[in-house]
Specification:
Blueprint: H1 2-8, H2 13-20, H3 24-32, H4 40-50, H5 55-64, H6 84-92, E1 101-107, E2 113-119, H7 120-127, H8 132-137, E3 144-147, H9 154-161, E4 166-168, E5 178-182, E6 191-203, E7 206-211, H10 214-222, E8 227-235, E9 238-245, H11 246-250, E10 254-256, E11 259-265, H12 272-290, H13 292-301, E12 311-313, H14 323-341, E13 350-352, H15 358-366, H16 370-381, E14 385-390, H17 393-398, H18 401-416, E15 419-424, E16 435-438, E17 442-447, E18 455-460, H19 463-478, H20 487-497, H21 502-515, H22 531-541
Parallel strand pairs: 6-8, 13-14, 14-15
Antiparallel strand pairs: 1-2, 2-3, 4-5, 5-6, 6-7, 7-11, 8-9, 10-11, 12-18, 13-16, 16-17, 17-18
Helix pairs in contact: 1-6, 2-3, 4-5, 12-18, 14-16, 15-18, 18-20, 18-22, 21-22
Length: 547
């Protein structure tokens, strides 16, 4: 139970241990059932940390009462899948604590999804004394089973394609076919959106989505929350899905021969490229929008640090802000720190950045200040520059494909501005802070990625520090994984290292660049911009397909 809630919220065991002030081994014992929380206070802390809404507290109470035998009632539900779609989604939809009903999505052997109405207390009793996986797979008493058919195969396709994505049928639906919980990450908090799925056809190079119920679609698209209109095209038994942002779809809904339709570009087909964009933009956008006012106030309060040449600011300086807001503040401060220091450097510098995964790198594509910062640094230097990355093979292997695509696009954005990207896979360089070094002379430290606090900045001529950065920059320059005389050559080598098909990247980026990404997903926060995504896609599209 604890493990599934933790994974549904994108936390590692060590992160949960840190947030609950216990050891990693203790979290292991909680999750494998070897030792439940020792008292109510501990149960409350876990429940609050995982956002279980009191569910874990009730479960602990049942354990404390010594109830250990699962109750059996005639009429059994199908096995609930031991995945986030099963128990974690059920918990995300758990009724308030004064209610006895819980709707659990369960997958039948043939892939059909049903909603099973369960008695809350029976679920608690049935879960006592067994491990989390057993709770997820146990047979449960059924009050009613409501078919939640997936006629277009959208739910099956999406959840099989992207691990962590959770889809559920809302009850009542209020015009929503699917409620999507988009996973978070190491710092991302997760996001959610509503989806309507309709039949569609390809016509004249466009996707024509047929909307049989105009009123239902208009009510769905009129709501202010984030939504997607999805068209399902079936060709020779294979379904392909195309997404359009709800706001974009609202203005496109039109009557055609008695049937309401919406046209969308085929560029918005849901695949690893477009899902990656949806994942990153929705996560960053929702988190920054949620903290919009306090973030603006905190940024103003922290301006005093700009008068210092060195500062290391803890996250405690911005209490109450979420992790993404801390990321934005750190990134923004570091960018301005480097721009202030660049004119005084005594030689052409080399840059070093700590981004390793798409989650971190997508900030270059999405944060409003990042693309302008890259342009300003290029202008200030008046020439090309180098920027080094350390991305070990293990990081590549553990990153989903859509994150690798986002990382690739961030590097392509830099290459489009004349910044030569260099890569090392040596894990010994993972701990090196972000820096700008005038070799053997002076260094600017500017680190916000995976740091102890929001940022650490400095300007120093200390020989030991400058020597360390100079050696690191020269080592990667001499033996870069992506060494090539042209940007196309370097990016092709990076695509190969990331196991991304080169021709496919060029083709798909060209399709998205033609229409822009805003029709796929529109940002709400003023701190999020699509300019970096669109510029990166346009640049990749301009590269030669053959090397």
């Amino acid at each position: 139970m604890i493990r599934q809630l933790r994974e549904a919220r994108g936390l590692s065991m060590r992160e949960l241990a840190a947030r609950t002030f216990v050891s990693h081994s203790k979290v292991q014992r909680w999750e494998n059932g070897a030792r439940p929380p020792q008292d109510r206070g501990e149960a409350e802390l876990i429940d609050r940390t995982l956002g279980a809404g009191g569910f874990l507290i009730e479960l602990w109470q049942e354990i404390d009462r010594g109830v250990s035998e699962p109750s059996h009632v005639s009429g059994l539900a199908p096995h609930v899948s031991d995945t986030p779609l099963g128990l974690a989604t059920a918990l995300s939809q758990t009724a308030p604590s004064d209610s006895e009903g819980i709707f659990v999505p369960a997958r039948l052997d043939d892939g059909t999804v049903v909603l099973v109405a369960l008695d809350r207390r029976a679920l608690l009793r049935a879960g006592v004394g067994v491990g989390a996986a057993a709770v997820a797979n146990m047979r449960m008493p059924v009050a009613s089973a409501i078919s939640a058919s997936d006629p277009f195969g959208f739910a099956r396709s999406a959840t099989e394609s992207w691990s962590g994505l959770q889809l559920s049928r809302p009850m009542p639906d209020f015009g929503v076919d699917w409620h999507a919980l988009i996973p978070g990450g190491r710092s991302m908090l997760g996001s959610q959106l509503s989806i309507q799925v309709h039949p569609a056809r390809i016509e004249g190079g466009r996707v024509i989505v047929s909307v049989p119920d105009q009123r239902r679609a208009e009510e769905f698209l009129a709501r202010p929350h984030r939504s997607l209109l999805v068209g399902a095209v079936n060709a020779e038994g294979v379904s392909r899905f195309y997404a359009l942002d709800g706001r974009a779809a609202r203005s496109k809904l039109a009557k055609n021969g008695g049937v309401y339709e919406v046209a969308a570009p085929t560029a918005y087909e849901l695949d690893d490229l477009t899902y990656g964009i949806l994942w990153a933009v929705s996560n960053y956008d929702d988190a920054l929008q949620a903290d919009d006012q306090p973030l603006a106030e905190t940024r103003s309060d922290l301006k005093a640090y700009e008068r210092l040449s060195a500062s290391a600011v803890s996250r405690e300086a911005a209490p109450g802000l979420n992790a993404v807001a801390h990321m934005w503040l750190g990134s923004d401060f570091c960018a301005r720190h480097i721009l202030r220091a660049l004119p005084d450097l005594p030689a052409l510098p080399a840059f070093w950045t700590r981004e390793q995964r798409g989650e971190e790198a997508s900030a270059w594509l999405i944060f409003d200040h990042k693309y302008p910062y890259l342009r300003e640094t290029t202008k200030a230097l008046g020439s090309t520059s180098t920027r080094a990355f350390c991305v070990p093979e293990e990081v590549v292997r553990s990153s989903p494909r859509y994150e690798r695509i986002l990382m690739f696009l961030a590097v392509a954005l830099m290459e489009s501005l004349g910044i030569h990207a260099q890569f090392t896979a040596d894990p010994a360089y993972e701990a090196v802070e972000g820096f700008v070094v005038a070799p053997d002379k002076e260094a600017v430290i500017a680190n916000w990625v995976r740091g102890e606090g929001m940022w650490h900045v400095d300007v120093t001529a200390r020989s030991s520090v400058v020597r360390e950065f100079t050696i690191a920059a020269r080592d990667v320059d001499a033996d870069s994984l992506t060494a090539a005389p042209t940007a196309a050559g370097r990016l092709r080598a990076l695509a190969q290292y990331f196991d991304l098909p080169w021709s496919w990247l060029i083709q798909r980026c060209g399709q998205v660049a033609q229409y822009g990404s805003s029709g796929l997903i529109q940002s709400r926060s003023r701190l999020v911009s699509a300019a970096g995504i669109d510029a990166a896609c346009a640049y990749v599209a301009s590269l030669p397909a053959d090397h």
